[in-house]
């Protein structure tokens, strides 16, 4: 073929035609991709299985620890209950002991008063002999305006024979703007005479319950003892109305 100088010429390339080569390349590529995918899939399964196994072990360990903690909490709760119960028992026991001691002290005080009372009767001082008003006690009653009274009469030292007589008890106070004196028989329904008769060898207690009239403000309690017989005696004593017996 003639070639004209200065004109553009196309190059002709001659290649061997291999129809199966492209198919093989595509097949190899597909196999490679499948292999990579399968490897990734199985690697993921393996990693997931390992993670699941690790998480399962961790969960079991946590469950075991939780169970142990629950048992410890139960044990400690029971222990706290026992200690609280023991503390309550101790508190009750302590309170019981304190109350017992208080009662014993009160009982001892009462016994000491009784011993002093009997000693005063049997072995008085040189100037303290004959008929005596040993004690006057006024305490609040069960109802408003009511009061319990107790007057202890004694015959000191000279108690070889009985002594008899009359005890007059009066209550001095204010009623309105006036000062009045009320005898015991006006306040105690059990007393009908002006005085209370007594007869004893060692001692006698005159006691009862009185009711104060409205608007009466007691200030004093007056007791007069008058014995009869050859050695007649007259004994008087007055006490202020006690604060614990306020009207």
What does it look like?
There is one protein chain. This protein has 247 residues and is α+β, with helices and mostly antiparallel strands. The chain folds into two domains: 20-123; 127-245, G protein-activated inward rectifier potassium channel 1 (Immunoglobulin-like, Sandwich), CATH 2.60.40. It is 42% helix and 30% strand. It has one helix at 19-122; strands at residues 130-140, 146-156, 163-175, 178-183, 196-200, 203-211, 216-227, 234-240. The strands form two sheets. Strands 3, 4, 5, 7 and 8 form a five-stranded antiparallel β-sheet that branches. The protein has a three-stranded antiparallel β-sheet with strand order 1-2-6, with helices on one face. A hairpin with a 6-residue loop joins strand 7 and strand 8. The longest helix has 104 residues, at 19-122. The chain is rod-shaped. It starts with 18 loop residues before the first helix and ends in a 7-residue tail after the last strand.
Q: Summarize this, please?
A:
Helix content is 42%, strand content 30%.
CATH class of the largest domain: Mainly Beta
Q: What is the terminal-to-terminal distance?
A: 158 Å
Silhouette: rod-shaped
* Helix fraction bin: 40-55%
Outline the biggest β-sheet. Answer: 5 strands, antiparallel
What class, by secondary structure content?
alpha+beta
Q: Estimate nothing, just give the exact number of structural domains.
A: 2
Give Rg in angstroms: 58 Å
The overall strand count is 8
Assembly status: single chain
Mean pLDDT: 80
User: What is the CATH topology descriptor of the largest domain?
Assistant: Immunoglobulin-like
**Element order, helices and strands?**
HEEEEEEEE
CATH fourth-tier homologous superfamily of the largest domain: G protein-activated inward rectifier potassium channel 1
Low-confidence stretches: none
CATH architecture descriptor text of the largest domain: Sandwich
User: What share of the residues does DSSP label as strand, in percent?
Assistant: 25-35%
Q: Tally the helices: what do you get?
A: 1
């Amino acid at each position: 073929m003639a070639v004209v100088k200065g004109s553009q010429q196309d190059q002709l390339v001659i290649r061997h035609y291999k129809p199966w080569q492209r198919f093989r390349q595509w097949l190899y590529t597909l196999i490679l991709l499948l292999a990579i995918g399968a490897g990734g899939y199985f690697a993921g399964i393996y990693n997931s299985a390992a993670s699941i196994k690790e998480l399962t072990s961790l969960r079991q360990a946590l469950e075991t620890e939780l169970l142990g903690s629950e048992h410890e909490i139960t044990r400690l709760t029971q222990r706290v209950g026992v200690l609280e119960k023991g503390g309550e028992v101790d508190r009750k026991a302590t309170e019981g002991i304190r109350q017992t001691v208080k009662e014993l002290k009160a009982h001892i005080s009462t016994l000491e008063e009784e011993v002093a009372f009997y000693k005063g009767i049997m072995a008085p001082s040189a100037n303290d002999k004959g008929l005596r008003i040993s004690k006057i006690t006024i305490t609040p009653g069960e109802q408003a305006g009511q009061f319990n009274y107790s007057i202890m009469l004694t015959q000191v030292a000279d108690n070889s024979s009985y002594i008899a007589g009359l005890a007059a008890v009066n209550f001095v106070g204010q009623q309105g703007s006036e000062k009045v004196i009320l005898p015991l028989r006006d306040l105690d329904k059990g007393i009908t005479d002006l005085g209370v008769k007594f007869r004893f060898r060692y001692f006698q207690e005159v006691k009862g319950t009185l009711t104060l009239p409205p608007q009466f403000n007691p200030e004093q309690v007056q007791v007069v003892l008058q014995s009869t017989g050859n050695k007649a005696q007259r004994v008087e004593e007055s006490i202020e109305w006690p604060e614990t017996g306020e009207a």
